[in-house]
Structure formats: structure tokens, C-alpha cells
Amino acid sequence: MAINRVPASFFLCVLISFLVSGVHASDNSDVLDFLKSGETLYKNRDLVSAEVEFENVLLVDPSNIDAQIWLIKVYADRKKIQKARDLFEKVSKQAPSNPRLKELKGIFAVDAPKKAKQKKEPDPVIFETITLLGQKPVSRKFGFVVPEEKVTRKTLPEPSLDESGSALTLSDDPLISSNTQKPAVAEKPPAAASMPEIEAFHVKDDGPLAAAFDEWSVNGLPKGLLKYFELVMADRSLASLEDHNILSEGDKYFKPRLEADPSNEDNHFYMGMISFIGGDTARAIELLEPIRNTTKPYKELLSLVFLEFDKFLAFEKERVRIAQKEREDSANKKREETEAQAKAAAKNQAANQNPGQNTDVPLTAPPEGANTAEGFDAEGYDFYKKGRLDDAVEKFKIAIKSNPNEPKFHYHLGLAMTDKGLAGTIDSFDRAIEAFNKVIQLDPGSKLAKDAEVMVRDIVAAKSSLK
């Protein structure tokens, strides 16, 4: 009879899946659903439920930046300051350039000790002057010595800067009138009051991101950001380098512009790229998907981002499909158990109604050689494939008792015991190791023995992780 073997790689995948997902986060809901639900609960100030939702995300995806940032806020609001601080330090190492992390620094800021005020010694020259002139002398606009007619003249304001940081000429500056020495009063645009100013940038950096910082210094923040995006997308490791707050400044600059003009593609692009490089993939998808078909010059750069989006969404779709299949398999198993219980109940009822009738006749004809060791093993393996692990173990034990020197029987018993361990009966792992070691002892060097060795290593690793 052919040996029924299950590839060791299959059980390795099962073990890895078990370790990553723990005990399966609630009903294996989608990561994005957990995030949206947690955000809604947080906004409604249901902090306890929000904490559960974000921690559920980390059960499925332990490295999810968005969930960890939300948890920092929840821990801080719930006065779990140490827990929030520990998580903040962990995420800061994982995504040092994330602008949202820089906004959270204020939660953990410690006020610097105030310096003691030093008593200022009186200036002897001033003291002597006041003594000579009296306590209330007639004040002059330009002091006591400089002749007032030499300095009293109309003055002009400092040259203004345009958006790129370049100085405007007097004729270009809207604050200065060319026909009069008196400065003109400039009217600010209605939305300008809510827009942050672009600060000049003059930090010297000779690293691989130098071109971006040079663009920022010479041509302004938007062009500096664009160059930064190009460099980071070409080499993602550059995102971990010092960015001199270019992402944080970009967030402060474009966030109010996006709120003021949500239909502007440039605002979507810059805020979406800042979120993407900062690790907030869900927010980046939300911002960049509406401009997937843009004709702007940065469309080629966006194509690289959309490739990663598509991979991420495909992975999420496959994960949801696997979770759905697991639920369906579980439902089928429960249905089979229910049907088996119904058949057993019907059999007992028939026996009570006809006590003289032989009720030990099986409902279906046994397979050929059912009373042999091979027959018991085959029957046990059928139970094993259907998920009826306890029935399978009993059949394998009978087969081993009939022929204890057949390695296949011990291997099948090891498989069943491994599944029982994965289902939560941790002691079954030890029984599985005993069975696989018996296979190695009975048939050393064989394919079955090598598979058994792999299973033993995987089980030992699984037990170590569960401690």
C-alpha cells in the first residue's frame, strides 16, 4: 500500500502562520477595517475599545506604523505614559522620518530647569548720566549725542522674499511703491493667514540626500521635497537618513493647503508622498489613488508608488481570501461533527426501540483489510484529513500495536499529534516528537526519516516561541 505523506513544508507554513498570527486576531478582519474602526472609536473618545482595535492590528501586522502611532495617542490619553513612551521610542527607531511622530514629541517633553535669575549690576555710565540729567530728562528720538537732523529720514523696509526664497527687487516688492518713499500697505490674500511660511534652509549636508537639501535651499521647499522623493524612491534605504525635518516642514506647509483646496493634485501628491515615506500606507493610498491617472510631471514617480500599492492590496486580498477559507473549513468541520453526532443519536434511538436487534453493524462497509494494521492506518489517515484528530490518533495507535516496526504508522501519529498541539493541546507536541524520533530510529536515512527530522526541528522552534 502506498505511503501517504504530507510534505514537511506544509507543516512549516502552518507553524509559521500559527506563530505570526498568535491565536488569530478576533475574526481575522482586514487590517484597514481595524484601523478605521479604531480611529472612529478614538474620535468618539471610546479609548478602551480603540486600544483593542489597534492592538488587533498589531496581532496581524506587528510592524504597522499607523496602528502604533494611534496606540501612542491612546496610551497617552489613558495616562499610560510609560507605555506610550516605550512604544514611541520603538516606532522612532522603525520610522525616524515619520512627521506624525515629530508631532507627538510634545507628549513626552520634559521642561528644562529654569535658570535662576542673576541680579544685574548697574551700569556706572548710565548711573552717572541719569545723575547729571535727572530722573526724567527730555527724551530725544536718537539719543543724547547724534544730531537728530543727520538721521531723521524716511526708511524703507527690508527686501521681501518670494516663495522660492530669492530676494525681490524694490520694484518687484508689492509692499513698496515706486512713486513714494512711504511704504505701501499690502493686502494679504484671504487664505494666506492660515498658510505657514516657508522658512529658509541653509544646512550643509554632503550625504546622498544633498541634492534635495540644495534644492530646498535654492528653489524652495516644494522642489526640495520633489527631489527628496525621487532619491528615496530610487533607494528606499535613504529614508532612514537624517532628513533635516524636510518631511515635517512639508507636512506643515501642504496640510493647510490640502484642507483649503482638496481637489488640487499637487496638494494630494505632496501629502500622499509624505505619508507613504513616513510609513502611513493607508493614508497614502487614500490621498494618491484619486490622482493615479494624473498628467503632471511627477506621474513617473507616482508609478513606482502605485506598484507598491498594488502589491500591498494584492497581499491584503490574498490574506482575506485565506482567512475566509479558514472560516469555511472550520464551518465544514463543525457541520461534519454535527452530522456524525446526529447519526450516533439516531443509532442509539434505534437501539432503544429495538433492543433485540444487533446495532453494531457499521453504517458503511469497511475498507478492504480493515482489521489489519494497514487498514487501521488507512482509516486513521481518513479521519486525519477530515480534521477528526482524536479518532485518527486512536486508529494510528491500533495500527502501531499491530505492527510497531512500521515507520509510516509512527509518522502518521506524529502528524496528528502535531495538529493537536497547534490546536492548543501543547502536551501533544511532546508525543509528536516521540513519534517522529521513532521513525528516525526505525528507518534512518530514508526520505520519511528526513521529513521527521524537519518536523522535530519545527516543533522545537514552535515550543520555544510559545514560552
Topology:
Layout: H1 8-21, H2 31-43, H3 47-60, H4 65-77, H5 81-94, H6 99-104, H7 124-133, H8 148-151, H9 210-219, H10 221-234, H11 246-260, H12 265-278, H13 281-288, H14 299-353, H15 373-385, H16 389-402, H17 407-422, H18 428-442, H19 447-466
Helix pairs in contact: 1-19, 2-3, 2-4, 3-4, 4-5, 9-10, 10-11, 10-12, 11-12, 12-13, 15-16, 16-17, 17-18, 17-19, 18-19
Could you explain how this protein is built, in words?
This protein has 467 residues and is mostly helical. Among the domains are: 22-94, Alpha Horseshoe (Serine Threonine Protein Phosphatase 5, Tetratricopeptide repeat), CATH 1.25.40; 195-350, no CATH class; 373-466, Tetratricopeptide repeat domain (Serine Threonine Protein Phosphatase 5, Tetratricopeptide repeat). The chain has 19 helices and no strands. Helix 3 packs antiparallel against helix 4 (65-77) and helix 16 (389-402) packs antiparallel against helix 17 (407-422). The longest helix is centred in the last third of the chain and has 55 residues, at 299-353. The radius of gyration is 37 Å and the shape is elongated. The two termini are 40 Å apart. The model is unreliable at 20-27, 110-117, 136-193 and 356-368 (pLDDT under 50).
